[in-house]
Design goal:
Strand content of chain B: 5-15%
Distance between the termini of chain A: 76 Å
Largest sheet of chain B: 11 strands, mixed
Oligomer: heterodimer
CATH superfamily of the domain at 3-255 and 438-444 and 463-482 in chain B: Amidase signature (AS) domain
Helix content of chain B: 25-40%
Radius of gyration of chain B: 21 Å
CATH architecture of the domain at 3-255 and 438-444 and 463-482 in chain B: Alpha-Beta Complex
Largest interface: A-B, 28 and 44 residues
Shape of chain B: globular
Largest sheet of chain A: 9 strands, mixed
Chain lengths: ~475, ~500
C-alpha cells in the first residue's frame, strides 16, 4: 500500500505568549532579551512563603482570544497545579488550568484546496511559562535564567481535525494572524512566543479507530513543522507497512538531520498530579465582563480581506498574503492613507518587502520602518523624484538603517535628474562616445536604444529620469 | 512583679506612666532568655544584641516624638516559618538551615510598622509538621511546666517562649492545631483566626488551604491586640478577605449572659483523658454560673475531619515543598552524578522523616487513579464538615471542646508512633477543615500540675464572640494568678 491509502490525523497544541506588560502572577516585566535573572522577584523565583496573584490582563487577553476563535467562555474557571521537577520550574509546579479552562468549543476557519474548512478548538487555557537553562561553557554545568518564568501563555488545543501539513500550516498562520489582530500576542516565532506541539497519527483509509499518535514538542518554525510532519507521516506508514506498531512517544525533531528522535524513555511517564491551586481563588466572569471584551474586538483578518477585495480591487492571493499578518495589513492601510495609491503599496508589499522578509527570515512585526515612511516612498516615485529602480535601493536602506526616504535620497544624492539641460548633456555625451550604436539604431536595430539608455543610466548612477532619457534619445537620434 | 511576667497591655500602662522604658523592657527579656533558654530551647535564632540596639534607637525616636503608637518598642517572638528579611528563616529544617529571606512576610511588615522589637525566631516541628516540636531538625523544645514534657507543636517554641516569659507574646501558625495545641500544653492563650483574616504572604506554606498565622499570648486581651495588628486584607494574598477592619479589644466585655454554648458530645467520647474531660465539665458549670446557656448536641465529624485533614494537608504539602529541590536556596547534597541524583539526595538528606512521610502520603493521594478516591473525597468531606458546623452555628454562638485529648506528654513517648501523634490533632483539625476561628485558653491543671486547655470555636469571622467568651472565663478563673510554670526537671 502507498501513502494514498492512509489518512493523516493531526492535532495541535499551540502555546502563545501573551503580550501583557507584567508576568501572570507577579509584577515583573515580560520584556524579551534582558540579562539573566534581572526580571525576577521573590514570587517568580519561588522563594518560600510567596504567593501568586493572578494578573487580570491575562484573563482578559485569553477571553479575547477565545471570543476571536468562536469559543464558549467559561463563567466559572480555576487554576490548577501541574507538578513536576525541573530546574527551570522553580516552584516544582506549573500553574495551569486542568479541567475548567477559560475557553472551550471554538473553531478557526482555514482555506484548503477543497475550500473552506473549520478546525475545531477543544480549549484555550492560561498558564505560566517556565524559565530557561543556559549551558555554562566555562563551568560545564547549567545555569538557570528565570526571566521567562511566569510569563503568561495561552495554550490553544485543537481537535484532531487537520489532515495534512498544508492544513497545519494554514491553521497555524490563521491562528497567528488572529492573535496578532486582537493584539494579545506578538507571536514572534524566533523568540519562542508562538510555538506548537504537533500530534501526528495515521490510519488506513476507512478505518474508524484512530492510529497511535506521536508528539513533537516546541516547534517554532513553519518550515520545520512541515518537514517534521512529512517525515513523521512517512516514518509511521513505513512502520505499519513493515508489520510493526507505532509507539506512543514524545519525539524531538532534528532540523539538521531531518529526522525525529524519541525524547525520553517511557519509564519516566509523568504523573503531573494536577489539583486545584489552593493559593488562588476561582475565576468568576460576569456576562457584562465578557460582553465588554466582545465589544472591543477589532476587525479580524477575514473581514479585512473582504474589504481589500472590494475597496482596493486586490487579487484574492495578494489580499491573503497581506491580511495573513496584522503588521503587513496595518502597513498596507497606513501607507495608503499617506500616498493614496493602493496598487503601488500592494506591489511593494507583495514583491520587494516580502522578498526581503523571506531572504532575511524576518517576521513582518520586525519591519523596522513604519507605514508613513512606506507611503512617502510611493509618493516620491509618483512625483518623479526618484525612479523605481532607485526606490528599490531606498527600500533596502530603509530596512538596514530605517529613516525617512527623503533623508536617504538626500544623503545618498539619489534624487532623480529631471532637469532637461542636464539630461541633454548626458545624452549628447553618450551619443558621442558610442557612434557604433548610433549607427546600429539608424540601421534599424531598435535594441541599440536600450544600450544607449543603459549607458546614460550608468553615467548618472541610475539617477536620470528614465522616461525623459528615452524621450531625449529618440529626439536626438531623429536628427 | 517581674517585668517579664507582665502582659503586653500591662507593659503598655507602665511605659505610658514612664514607670518603665523600652530599654528596661527589652533588657529584661534578653536577660530572661539568657537565663531560661538553655533549659527550654524555644529559639532557633536569638536576636538579643539586635533587640537591645533596636530598643535604644526606638527609645530615641520616641523621645524625639518621631514614633508614636501603642506598640513601639514592645518585644515579640516570631515562629521560624514566617519570613523575616535579613534574618534566617529555617522552618526548623536542615533544608533551610542557612536560608535568609530577601523579604518580610506581610505580618512582619505590620509588626515592624508598629515599631515592635523582634527578640528572635522560634523553634517548631520541621515545616510545621508535628504536634510536639520534637520534629525540629535542631533540638526539641521543652515544656516550661515540666522540662521532660513536650510543649506541643508545631508552634511549640512560640508557646514555650511565652509561657516561660522569654517573650511577651509571639506569632505562631496553625494548620491543624499548631497554635492551639501548644498553647494548651503550655498554659497560654492561642488563637487561630478564620481562614482569610490574616495574610499568609511570607508564611512558608505547609498546607495553603488550611494555614493561618495567629497570636500566642499570656491573656485574651493581648490576643485581641495582636490580632488587631496582623488582621486585614492583603493584595499579595488573594485568599485574604477584604472586609472592614475591627477593633477586637472593643468586644471584651466579659458578659456572657444569654450566650448559647454548644457542647458536641462526640468530642468528649472515648480517647479523651478523664482529667481533661473533668476540667471541661467544670468550665461548662462556670459558664452556666456566668449566665450562659450550655447545651449538649451531636456533631459527628471529628474522625472524618481527621482523615480528610491528613489527606488534604499532605497533598498540598507534597506540592508546596517541591520547591525545596537543592537548586537554589536550599540544602544541596555534596556529590551527585546527574540531575535526578541531585534532587534525590538533596531531598533525602535535607528533609526529616515526618516531612518525608507526609510528602509521600500527599504524592500518593494526588497520583492518577487515586485522586478521586482520596483527594476528591476528602474535599467532599470538607464540604460536609462545613455544613455540619453551619447547622450548629444556627443554634449556638460558640462551641466548647477540649483543645487536645491529653495534657502535654513525655518527650519521646509518641515521636516514633506517627499514628498516635496524628490522633492528638482530633479536637483541632475540624476547625481548619472548616476555616473557622478557634481559641485555646487554660482551664486548669491536672494532678501533676500540667495545664489543660479548652477550645472555643466560633463561626467564620466571629473572632469577637470567642474572644469575649474566653475573656469572661479568664476573668473568672484567674488562671495566671494561680498557676505558674515551674521548670520541673
Amino acid at each position: 500500500m502507498s501513502r494514498e491509502d492512509y489518512e493523516v490525523i493531526i492535532g495541535l497544541e499551540v502555546h502563545a505568549e501573551l503580550s501583557t506588560k507584567t508576568k501572570i502572577f507577579c509584577s515583573c516585566p515580560t520584556k524579551f532579551g534582558a540579562a539573566p535573572n534581572t526580571q525576577t522577584c521573590p514570587i517568580c523565583m519561588a522563594m518560600p512563603g510567596t504567593l501568586p496573584v493572578l494578573n487580570e490582563k491575562v484573563v482578559e487577553y485569553a477571553v479575547k482570544a477565545g471570543l476571536a476563535t468562536n469559543c464558549e467562555i467559561s463563567r466559572n474557571s480555576k487554576n490548577d497545579r501541574k507538578n513536576y521537577f525541573y530546574p527551570d520550574l522553580p516552584k516544582a509546579y506549573q500553574i495551569s488550568q486542568y479541567d475548567k479552562p477559560l475557553c472551550e468549543h471554538g473553531y478557526v476557519e482555514i482555506d484548503t484546496k477543497e475550500g473552506k474548512k473549520k478546525i475545531r478548538l477543544t480549549r484555550i487555557h492560561i498558564e505560566e511559562d517556565a524559565g530557561k537553562l543556559n549551558h555554562d561553557e566555562f563551568a560545564g554545568g547549567s545555569l538557570v535564567d528565570l526571566n521567562r518564568a511566569g510569563v503568561p501563555l495561552i495554550e490553544i488545543v485543537s481537535e484532531p481535525d487537520l489532515r495534512s501539513s498544508e492544513e497545519v500550516e494554514a491553521y497555524l498562520r490563521k491562528l497567528k494572524a488572529i492573535l496578532e489582530y486582537i493584539e494579545v500576542s506578538d507571536c514572534k516565532m524566533q523568540e519562542g512566543s508562538y510555538r506548537a506541539d504537533v500530534n501526528v497519527s495515521v490510519r488506513k483509509k476507512g478505518d474508524q479507530k484512530l492510529g497511535t499518535r506521536t508528539e513533537m514538542k516546541n516547534m517554532n518554525s513553519f518550515r520545520s513543522i512541515t518537514r517534521a510532519i512529512e517525515y513523521e507521516i512517512d516514518r509511521q506508514i513505513d512502520v505499519i507497512e513493515d508489520g510493526g506498531e507505532v509507539e506512543q512517544e514524545t519525539l524531538r525533531w532534528d532540523d539538521v538531520s531531518g529526522k525525529t528522535f524519541p525524547m525520553r524513555d517511557k519509564e519516566d511517564a509523568q504523573d503531573y498530579r494536577y489539583f486545584p491551586d489552593p493559593d488562588l481563588v476561582a475565576i468568576k466572569l460576569s456576562e457584562e465582563y465578557i460582553e465588554n471584551i466582545k465589544n472591543t474586538l477589532p476587525e479580524l483578518p477575514e473581514s479585512r480581506k473582504e474589504r481589500y477585495l472590494k475597496e482596493y480591487g486586490l487579487s484574492e492571493k495578494d489580499a491573503n498574503i497581506i491580511t495573513s499578518s496584522k503588521y503587513l495589513s496595518d502597513l498596507f492601510e497606513g501607507a495608503i492613507k499617506v500616498c493614496n495609491n493602493p496598487k503601488a503599496v500592494n506591489n511593494w508589499i507583495i514583491s520587494d518587502i516580502s522578498r526581503i522578509l523571506n531572504e532575511t527570515e524576518m517576521e513582518p512585526i520586525e519591519i523596522p520602518f513604519d507605514s508613513n515612511q512606506l507611503g512617502k516612498l510611493v509618493i516620491l516615485i509618483d512625483k518623479g523624484t526618484i525612479s523605481s529602480s532607485i526606490a528599490k535601493k531606498v527600500l533596502v536602506e530603509m530596512f538596514e538603517h530605517p529613516r525617512d526616504p527623503e533623508d536617504i535620497i538626500d544623503e545618498k544624492g539619489w534624487v532623480q535628474i529631471s532637469d532637461e539641460g542636464a539630461i541633454k548633456e548626458v545624452v549628447l555625451k553618450v551619443l558621442e562616445a558610442n557612434p557604433q550604436s548610433v549607427a546600429d539604431y539608424k540601421g534599424g536595430k531598435d535594441k541599440a536604444l536600450g544600450f544607449l539608455v543603459g549607458q546614460a543610466m550608468k553615467e548618472t548612477r541610475g539617477k536620470a529620469n528614465p522616461q525623459m532619457l528615452n524621450q531625449m534619445f529618440l529626439e536626438e537620434l531623429k536628427r | 512583679m517581674e517585668i517579664t511576667e507582665l502582659t503586653v497591655h500591662e507593659l503598655q500602662e507602665k511605659l505610658k506612666s514612664k514607670e518603665l522604658t523600652i530599654k528596661d523592657v527589652t533588657k529584661a527579656y534578653t536577660d530572661r532568655i539568657a537565663e531560661k533558654e538553655k533549659d527550654v530551647q524555644a529559639f532557633v535564632t536569638v536576636l538579643a544584641e539586635d533587640a537591645n540596639k533596636k530598643a535604644e534607637e526606638m527609645q530615641e525616636k520616641i523621645d524625639n516624638g518621631e514614633v508614636k503608637g501603642d506598640f513601639a518598642g514592645i518585644p515579640i517572638g516570631i515562629k521560624d516559618n514566617i519570613c523575616t528579611k535579613g534574618i534566617k528563616t529555617t522552618c526548623s529544617s536542615k533544608m533551610l538551615e542557612n536560608f535568609v529571606s530577601p523579604y518580610d512576610a506581610t505580618v512582619m511588615e505590620k509588626v515592624n510598622q508598629e515599631g515592635m522589637i523582634n527578640l528572635g525566631k522560634l523553634n517548631m516541628d520541621e515545616f510545621a509538621m508535628g504536634g510536639s516540636t520534637e520534629y525540629s531538625y535542631f533540638y526539641p523544645t521543652k515544656n516550661p511546666w515540666n522540662l521532660n514534657k513536650v510543649p506541643g507543636g508545631s508552634s511549640g517554641g512560640s508557646a514555650a517562649a511565652v509561657a516561660s516569659n522569654m517573650v511577651p507574646w509571639a506569632l505562631g501558625s496553625d494548620t491543624g492545631g499548631s497554635i492551639r495545641e501548644p498553647a494548651s500544653f503550655c498554659g497560654v492563650v492561642g488563637l487561630k483566626p478564620t481562614y482569610g483574616l490574616v495574610s499568609r504572604y511570607g508564611l512558608v506554606a505547609f498546607a495553603s488551604s488550611l494555614d493561618q498565622i495567629g497570636p500566642i499570648t499570656k491573656d485574651v486581651r493581648d490576643s485581641a491586640m495582636l490580632l488587631n495588628i496582623i488582621a486585614g486584607h492583603d493584595k499579595k494574598d488573594t485568599t485574604s478577605v477584604d472586609m472592614e477592619k475591627k477593633d477586637y479589644t472593643a468586644c471584651l466585655k466579659g458578659d456572657v449572659k444569654g450566650l448559647k454554648i454548644g457542647v458536641p458530645k462526640e468530642f468528649y467520647a472515648e480517647g479523651i483523658n478523664e482529667e481533661v474531660k473533668a476540667k471541661l465539665y467544670e468550665a461548662m458549670d462556670r459558664y452556666k454560673t456566668l449566665g450562659a446557656e450550655v447545651e449538649e448536641f451531636s456533631l459527628d465529624i471529628a474522625k472524618y475531619s481527621l482523615a480528610s485533614y491528613y489527606i488534604i494537608a499532605c497533598a498540598e504539602a507534597s506540592s508546596n515543598l517541591g520547591r525545596f529541590d537543592g537548586i537554589r536556596y536550599t540544602y544541596r547534597t555534596g556529590e551527585f552524578k546527574n540531575l535526578k541524583e541531585l534532587y534525590k539526595k538533596s531531598r533525602s538528606e535535607g528533609f526529616g522523616p515526618e516531612v518525608k512521610r507526609r510528602i509521600i502520603l500527599g504524592t500518593y493521594v494526588l497520583s492518577s487513579g487515586y485522586y478521586d478516591a482520596y483527594y476528591k473525597k476528602a474535599q467532599q468531606v470538607r464540604t460536609l464538615v462545613m455544613n455540619e458546623f453551619n447547622k450548629a452555628f444556627e443554634k449556638y454562638n460558640v462551641i466548647l471542646v477540649p483543645t487536645s485529648p491529653t495534657v502535654a506528654f513525655d518527650i519521646g513517648s509518641k515521636s516514633n508512633n506517627p499514628l498516635e501523634m496524628y490522633l492528638a490533632d482530633i479536637c483541632t483539625v475540624s476547625v481548619n477543615i472548616a476555616g473557622l476561628p478557634g481559641i485555646s485558653i487554660p482551664c486548669g491543671v491536672d494532678k501533676e500540675g500540667m495545664p489543660i486547655g479548652m477550645q472555643l470555636i466560633g463561626n467564620k469571622f466571629c473572632e469577637e464572640t470567642i474572644l469575649n467568651t474566653a475573656y469572661a472565663f479568664e476573668q473568672d478563673l484567674k488562671f495566671r494568678e494561680n498557676y505558674k510554670p515551674e521548670f520541673k526537671k
